[in-house]
Amino acid sequence: MDKKSARLKRALKLRSKMKKLDVNRLTIHRTSQHIYAQVLDKDGVTTLASASTAQSVIKATVKNTGNTEAAMEVGKIIAQKAAEAGVTEVSFDRSGFKYHGRVKALANAAREAGLKF
Asked: Which of 7, 35, 67, 110 holds its CA 20 to 30 A away from the CA of 76?
């Protein structure tokens, strides 16, 4: 099993557990250069809020888009946008990525900005 298929297997297991909870979810995707976050509705189809390091607002505030500092900015912004959309509680879908580094930084920043996991 290669690295990507192992990650997708972990993601499938996590999402099946979250589907039973029936709550909004904060899902992320990480690449070597960027990190993306979006808050999805309970049905998993409608996007309520989104933020990423590819957006010009965040690119202007950080020096490098592929580090933990940029991930913290994305976490703060996604929490603000979720609050504007009326979402205060979510489940954290890390998409099979290990809870370490940029993923952890984004989650902690979103918690500090008011989102409850």
From this structure: 7
Number of H helices, E strands in the chain: 4, 4
Residue matched to tokens 């996991």 = 117
DSSP β-ladder status, 91-93 and 47-52: unpaired
CATH for 3-112 is 3.30.420.100
Q: Among residues 48, 102, 35, which one has the least CA distance to residue 79?
A: 48
Domain boundaries, the chain: 3-112
Q: Cα-flanking dihedrals φ and ψ of residue 39, to 5°?
A: -100, 120
**Cβ atoms within 10 A of the Cβ of 98, count?**
11
pTM of the model: 0.90
